[in-house]
Design brief:
Order of helices and strands: EEEHHHHHEEHEHEHEHEHEHHEHEEEEE
Helix content: 25-40%
Number of domains: 2
Strand order of the largest sheet: 5-6-7-8-9-10-11-12
Low-confidence stretches: none
Strand content: 15-25%
CATH class of the largest domain: Alpha Beta
Distance between the termini: 30 Å
CATH superfamily of the largest domain: Enolase-like C-terminal domain
Number of strands: 16
CATH topology of the largest domain: TIM Barrel
Largest sheet: 8 strands, parallel
CATH architecture of the largest domain: Alpha-Beta Barrel
Length: about 350
């Protein structure tokens, strides 16, 4: 058996090329963690914790405290029985989901490296190429137009526009300006749980002819407001649950309440194994799948891509945050020819390593 003999973590600070703003806050620096898991055979795996306080109030300090407190009890777990190891890790790290994600990523990376298997193949190897959207962060209408024009020129044909936290007329102008410079691009609205149901419905109705280009409204209402989420859906627009879907229990409630059409699966909010189970459960219930993340490097984003590509069947892919980083501390992983992400070339694990300048 491949027993865990080493667990370490250190801080990973990455400046952003431009602020990453959402309705509930803005991030200027990604304050992440790099986590290492080593096995008795000498194989080393790495994972990333990318807490985003504006989304779920988790901080890097929370992740550090959780990992430090759990370290000794995680040593000795067997990597080959990875679901049992995940259950134990969830007991110890569940209050800091980014720490759980980083540990599970590093564990599965080490395990698949040790047996010569890619993480993409481990998850099923179903779809070797994904096409990502790109995010237009909060800001002025001029910024929205600039970001949209740049993305459109680069080949992106699905724009995810952050809305909420501002007057309706402001978001309408931003959406109109962005749409005008990306004439055949689809639009995803993402309010990050910042709107009341009536505000979200009013926004959709005020779009006029632009409404035909909106393919999805992601998390318009507060995380706990499942009835509000359902009300927006019943107004006639496809709705995705994100902040409302952090666990399998959350997913079951969304299914029971018929509150969403799509579930956004994020390893950083649920952990890798729970995200895998949520994707399977959502698909079995007839819901569409989306994969996304926080403000993450190619390390966590490649892990999510391997999960989504491995399982296949994801209708929406939102794995663009490496484009917002001022520098990339990693190499390898997915092959990016934005908006395309390719996975077939990965040979062992997630294929990501520290760039030589960051070692």
């Amino acid at each position: 058996m491949a027993r865990i003999t080493h667990l370490a973590f250190r801080r990973l600070d990455i400046e952003l090329a431009e602020p990453f703003g959402i309705a509930t806050g803005t991030q200027l620096v990604a304050e992440n963690l790099l986590v290492e898991v080593g096995l008795a055979d000498g194989t080393l795996g790495i994972g990333e914790a990318a807490p985003f306080p504006a989304v779920n109030h988790e901080t890097r300090a929370d992740a550090e405290r959780a990992l430090e407190a759990a370290r000794e009890r995680l040593l000795g777990l067997e990597a080959e029985t990875w679901r049992a190891a995940s259950r134990r890790a969830t007991e110890l790290l569940g209050s800091a989901p980014s720490a759980l994600c980083a540990f599970e990523t590093a564990l599965l990376d080490a395990l698949t490296r040790s047996v010569g298997l890619s993480l993409f193949a481990f998850f099923g190897g179903a779809k070797a190429e994904l096409i990502s959207d790109i995010t237009l962060t909060t800001g002025s209408p001029e910024q929205a137009a600039q970001q949209a024009a740049r993305a459109y020129q680069r080949g992106f044909r699905l724009l995810k526009v952050k809305v909420g936290g501002a007057p309706l007329v402001h978001d309408l102008e931003r959406l109109g300006r962005a749409a005008s410079v990306a004439p055949d691009a689809g639009l995803v609205l993402d309010a990050n749980a910042s709107m009341r149901p009536e505000e979200a419905i009013r926004l959709v109705r005020a779009l006029g002819a632009l409404r035909e280009r909106v393919v999805l409204f992601e998390q318009p209402t507060a995380a706990a407001d499942i009835a509000g989420l359902r009300a927006v859906r019943e107004s006639g627009i496809k709705v995705a649950a994100d902040e409302s879907a952090r666990s399998f229990a959350d997913l079951e409630r969304i299914i029971d309440e018929q509150a969403a059409d799509v579930v956004n699966v994020k390893i950083m909010k649920s952990g890798v194994v729970a995200a895998l189970d949520m994707a399977t459960g959502a698909r079995a219930a007839g819901l569409e799948l989306m994969v996304g993340g926080m403000v993450e490097t190619r390390l966590a984003m490649t892990t999510s891509a391997c999960l989504a590509g491995g399982l296949g069947g994801f209708s929406f892919v939102d794995l663009d945050t490496p484009l917002f980083l001022a520098h990339d501390p990693f190499q390898g992983g997915f092959e990016d020819s934005w908006p395309r992400l390719r996975l077939a070339h990965i040979e062992r694990g997630h294929g990501v390593s520290l760039a030589s300048s960051s070692a």
